[in-house]
Specification:
29% helix; 5 helices; single chain; 184 residues
Length: 184
């Protein structure tokens, strides 16, 4: 399965998916990615702080230099439960120095519930990050869950998808490859 995903990623790159940003990225908005709203004028992301379970503070600026798939979710959210394994697979597949999936549990999500949620659905690669008072979510205009925001390596929101999606799908990989640096 990994080889198939890599083949799709490199085929998209080989076919010039990076040039699609300038001329026709809309062609990559198929399957679950049809719900993606891409911004003609990318906007800066929030500087609001969120934490890990130990209370260490983070901001999106900490990820500068990485393209992010930023996902807002909650343990009580049924679509989040469906989506999270594909986000985990995406992080496993593409995660590294240039790319990260950042998942932020927004609202009341006790740590035992998050741990149980991850264990039940087999999530092993995603961080546990918390926004208990919804300050980050509110500042980013998150209404409803799940919401996934594409953040460029220079800290600008380039797209947003409301609702769940299969982030490990060929369609998602092709779309994301249009934003990632070409590794030729």
């Amino acid at each position: 399965m990994r080889l198939i995903r890599l083949a799709v990623l490199y085929m998209a790159l080989g076919l010039g998916a990076n040039t699609a940003i300038a001329d026709g990225i809309e062609d990559l908005l198929v399957g679950d990615m049809r719900a993606m709203v891409l911004h003609d004028d990318p906007r800066p992301v929030s500087e609001v702080v969120f934490t890990d379970p130990d209370g260490a503070e983070f901001s999106l600026a900490d990820y500068e230099g990485q393209f992010l798939v930023l996902n807002f979710w909650a343990t009580w959210c049924a679509p989040c439960r469906e989506e999270m394994p594909s986000l985990d697979a995406l992080q496993q597949e593409l995660g590294g120095d240039d790319f990260a999936v950042v998942t932020v549990a927004t609202g009341r999500n006790p740590l035992p519930a998050i741990t149980r949620f991850f264990d039940e659905i087999g999530v092993t690669e995603l961080p546990i990050l918390l926004d208990p008072r919804q300050n980050l979510a509110r500042d980013m205009g998150v209404l409803g869950l799940p919401i996934t925001v594409l953040v460029s390596s220079d800290g600008r929101e380039v797209g947003r998808l409301r609702g769940d999606a299969d982030w490990a799908s060929e369609e998602a990989m092709a779309l994301l490859s249009a934003f990632l640096p070409n590794e030729s």
